[in-house]
Amino acid sequence: MLYYLDSFFFVMNENNVKVKKLINFGPSGRAIAQPIDKNLLDNIFEHLTMERYANVQYFSIYLWFQERDLNGFASYFLNESKGEMEHAQKFADYLIARGQSVKLDELPAPVQTWDSIEDLISYSFNMEADLTSSLQQLYSISERISDTRTNVFLDPIVEAQTKSEDEFANILGKVKFASNQPSAILLIDSDLKIK
Predict the structure, then answer these.
(1) pLDDT at 15 (0 to 100)
(2) Cα separation of 111 and 77, whole Å?
(3) Smaller CB count within 10 Å for the chain: N or C?
(4) Residue 169: CB partners within 8 Å, gap ≥ 6?
(5) What are the residues whose beta carbons fall under 8 Å from the beta carbon of 63, sequence distance 6 or more?
(6) Phi and psi (nearest 5°) for 180?
(7) Domain boundaries, given as residue ranges, for the chain
(8) In the chain, count of helices (H) and strands (E)?
(9) Tens digit of pLDDT for each residue in 54-67?
(10) What is the pTM of this model?
(11) Using CA atoms, how far apart are residues 160 and 149, in angstroms rounded to an integer?
(12) Nearest CA to 195 among 85, 82, 75, 87?
């Protein structure tokens, strides 16, 4: 049995030497095993922009809470901002690994004025829901075109995104229940400071 495996590998190596295999290169000049479908690629770029915008928006929200001495909320949104930048980096790294040049689109200015904490958290929840929808669309496209590499890449990201959406729903529920009462908001702020 061992002899068979050794022979098999020898034959395989010998064939590889005799047969020139075509190697595809991506736009970045890196060798690629499987090109990325244009529709999928366009959607990945769009998602990357969404992650980058969420990073900037959450940093803006961090500043808003910091200016109001709500340090628990501020800390939570600063961590969210960092998390969104990490997500953007993962997508950029994935694109590079797939031989692509990373294209960064211009970002709109973040919203910096809010009428209430509930409005702010509602906006954040909707942003997370949009990110989740975008990921589901990417997953659907990659599944439809049998791009297993992208599905495997997306699996842990979809799971983490679903958890993040749930966290925002939980915070929104508490803030909504608090009805802008300062003592209740301070309790939520204190709870977020612990996390």
Answers:
(1) 54
(2) 14
(3) N
(4) 125
(5) 74, 112
(6) 60, 20
(7) 37-194
(8) 6, 2
(9) 999 999 999 999 99
(10) 0.85
(11) 18
(12) 75
